[in-house]
Amino acid sequence: MKIAIVGLGYWGPNLLRNLVALVGPGSVVVVEKSLDRIAAVIPQYPSVAYCLSLDQALDDDEVGAVIVATPVSSHAALVRAALDAGRHVLVEKPLAASVVEAIDLVSCAEERGRVLMVGHTFLFSPRVERMREYLQEGRLGSVQYATSSRLNLGLHQRDVGVIWDLAPHDFSILFHLLGEFPVSAQTSGRCVVRSGSLDVAFVNLSFASGIVASVDVSWLAPRKTRSTVLVGDRQMMVYDDLNNEEPVKIYDKGVVIPDPEGFGEHQLTYRHGDVQAPFIPAREPLAQELAHFLACIDGTETCRSDGRFGLHVVEALEAAERSWQEGGWPVDVETAVPEAGRSGYATGRLAS
User: pTM surpassing 0.85?
Assistant: First the structure.
């Protein structure tokens, strides 16, 4: 089976490098309308086939899967074309530019019996996997709240604001770790560089379990930040993706509530225990993601970031954006996934 990669922009060359290493250059077809971009990679990958349009690639019956790495505004049309042609699809995040488009793509994939996977790459990070293991083991106890920050100076996108550009990473990480999707979103933010395009946003998410989460995203920050904090009633966990030595730390800290019948019943005791930094082997998440995609096509693995998961992320993005547009009022995250949705995750509001 050959695999077509659509787009050689910002992320496409990374996909090309990993895919060639995984399946070999003879099984890869690059789709790119820019001759300059094609010329830039031909010296490194002379054995890869090149096309100027997706239709041209789909004319090759040996192409069994398509990877879409183009701006989000083009996702719906390209993914739908590939699915209609009977191909499996991996599309970069977010799945689509609206909930309506995302629903259509999920329905199309399920009707045709094809794999639709969304490239939420952090779900394949060994660091995030280790965090999920700790949570499933109950190390943190009951999670009370979470915070996540993704800040930097740029890169400004032309077709989307900062929520749709950066928040998919944090949303997918939190939803994967917590095992549930939000029921409401409340957003405040500002458009600084371009009118109508958010440069900084503060999103508050509420979950049916009672957990609350705060997600901060910005293209206007003095230093780069990539961090997630989860606070449980037993321990606390910090994930700093920029710390290559100790990216995940477990803090044995908390508040001890004394016996109300004992002396000093109105005093709280603060527990300060050890800090653990587990060893986490280095593996490129993108390579793991592509291998998982092929395993899902083979039927040997269940898709970790399938179309339904991607749809939930789009629902949260759309609710967060609408909250800002409506003056910062909380907005319900309308869930279009039916009760027989993706196993292993709790949903918020369920459509009838």
Answer: yes
